[in-house]
Structures are given as structure tokens and as C-alpha cells.
Design a protein that fits this description.
289 residues, mainly alpha, three-stranded mixed sheet, 3 strands, 9% strand, elongated
């Protein structure tokens, strides 16, 4: 709500003062309104329990929200860069006093908002929302400085679009980094910070495990990790003994790697990747057909 009111004020002030910085700030804040709304919806969806139709629940909702937020940041940043370059070539008169007043208000609002949603966790949706607000706080600070410079030196009209250009490029860079991480989750890549060799070594060290292969580790969301693997048990244990070993493996995965969901297929002998067995079928559905 605060950001929505701020957008209206920035647009009016930006048009009256002729400031691209204020209009750019309004664009970022408008993206904030959408980002925060989308994040609220995504977080509420992710909290829903799993169902027979959606056995993993709605965890991916936060990832999709982060993707939308990152793309929005990139689009807005590109538009601001284009307009900033145009105004650098053809500078326009700017009312420094109006710019200072509105930029100060925007800086306070965005700083408070970013503090409210700040997070040290891995949730991509929350991080994208915080990036929106921190980017706007930085933009407001840059516009404030530009307003002061223009007030003290009326001939420095180029400083307004230059400040907007700097902030837009910075925000676009961080949005691109976030988007790359989102794409990694959607493509079910190895979660950031994990290494398959380290995981296999940790599982192999569990007493009763001979070897581990056909390992797949992915993220359901930025907060929930999953694993599937084939494990060769040593000594041909009974079902009860094998279950105890699997329980120890799950404990290692949870405590050391924060993997909440593990599907472990127990084997007495390693499956042959070149043969028509379970491993080959799982790895190559085309070959199995």
C-alpha cells in the first residue's frame, strides 16, 4: 500500500520536475507493488499441504514468483537505460528542489519496506521482493544526490539521467544473478552449495553401505531439496537391517546437506548402466522404449 501511494506521488512529482530519476523510481516502485503482491500469493500457496494431485505441494510457486519478479526488474531497468541515454544526449531542465523532496520520501519508504521483508534465508521469492525494495532504496538515494547536485549546479542537468543509468545497470545485474539461480531450480540442477561427490562420499561412509550410484539431487524450491539414489547394501542384510541403514543415510542427508526428501533404492548388487535393468531404464527412457 505504501509503495502504491509512493508510485502516484513519484509520477506526479517526476512529471512536474522533469526528472527522469523520479520517473525511473516510480517505475521501480510500480514493479515493487506487483512483486510484493506476487510474493504474498506465492508464499501462501507454498504453505498449502500436499495433495494426491500435487504430491510435492505448491513449493514451486515461490520459484515462479521469483522468476516473474526478476524478469520485471530486467524489463524496467532496460527501459530506464534507454531513456537515460536519450536524456544524456538531450538534457532536460530539472527542478532540483522537487527532486530532493520526493527522493527523500521514497528513500525512507523503501528503506523501511526492505527492512520489513528482509530475510537471511534461501527463499527466492522473498529475496526477489527484497531486491526490488533495496534497488528502489538505492535508486532513491541516487536521485536524492542528483537533486542536490542539480540544485547546487543548475548546469549539471546530465547528472539526473546518469544517476538513473547507474542504478538501473546495478539492479539489472543483481536481477540477472537471481534469474540464473531461478532457472537452475526450474531445470532441477544441483542446488547451489552442494557437490555430488561429497554427498556420495558421506553416504558411502555409512556403515552397511557398499556403494552409491545413479544419484540425482534437485530443489523443489529454494528451501526444499530432494534426492534420489541407488544404494548397494553390503552383506545382503535383512529388510529390517536395510531400513536401519537407510534411516542413518537420511539423517546424514538432513543434517549435513539440508536435504528434506530422499528416495533411496536398495540393491544387493550394482545395476549395469548398459543393461536393461532399473538403472538403465531410469536413466534412458528412450533406450528402454
Amino acid at each position: 500500500m505504501l509503495n502504491g501511494v509512493l508510485v502516484v506521488g513519484l509520477v506526479i512529482a517526476g512529471a512536474a520536475a522533469g526528472s527522469l530519476g523520479l520517473l525511473a523510481d516510480a517505475g521501480h516502485n510500480l514493479a515493487d507493488v506487483g512483486a510484493l503482491t506476487l510474493t504474498i500469493i506465492a508464499v501462501r500457496l507454498a504453505a498449502r499441504p500436499a495433495t494426491p494431485r500435487r504430491s510435492f505441494g505448491w513449493h514451486r510457486a515461490t520459484v515462479l514468483a521469483a522468476q516473474a519478479n526478476a524478469v520485471t526488474l530486467l524489463v524496467v531497468s532496460v527501459l530506464i537505460v534507454v531513456e537515460a541515454i536519450r536524456r544524456l544526449v538531450h538534457p532536460m531542465a530539472v527542478d532540483g528542489g522537487v527532486v530532493i523532496a520526493m527522493a527523500l520520501v521514497a528513500l525512507v519508504v523503501n528503506a523501511l519496506a526492505s527492512r520489513v521483508v528482509r530475510t537471511s534465508g534461501r527463499d527466492l521469492a522473498m529475496r526477489s521482493a527484497m531486491l526490488h525494495l533495496l534497488g528502489d532504496a538505492a535508486a532513491s538515494g541516487a536521485v536524492l544526490i542528483a537533486g542536490i547536485v542539480i540544485t547546487l549546479s543548475p548546469g549539471a542537468r546530465w547528472f539526473d539521467p546518469a544517476a538513473s543509468l547507474l542504478v538501473a545497470v546495478t539492479v539489472a545485474y543483481h536481477a540477472a544473478v537471481l534469474l540464473r539461480e531461478v532457472v537452475g531450480v526450474l531445470l532441477e540442477a544441483m542446488p547451489v552449495g552442494l557437490d555430488e561427490d561429497v554427498i556420495v562420499a558421506a553416504l558411502t561412509n555409512v556403515k552397511g553401505v557398499e556403494s552409491v550410484h545413479d544419484v540425482h539431487v534437485w530443489s523443489l524450491s529454494s528451501e526444499v531439496r530432494a534426492l534420489a539414489a541407488h544404494v548397494v547394501m553390503s552383506g545382503h542384510p535383512t529388510l529390517e537391517e536395510a531400513q536401519l541403514v537407510v534411516g542413518k543415510m537420511r539423517a546424514v542427508l538432513g543434517e549435513r546437506f539440508d536435504i528434506a526428501h530422499a528416495t533411496i533404492e536398495q540393491e544387493c548388487e550394482a545395476c549395469d548402466a548398459d543393461g536393461a535393468d532399473a538403472c538403465a531404464i531410469a536413466d534412458s527412457p528412450v533406450r528402454s522404449l
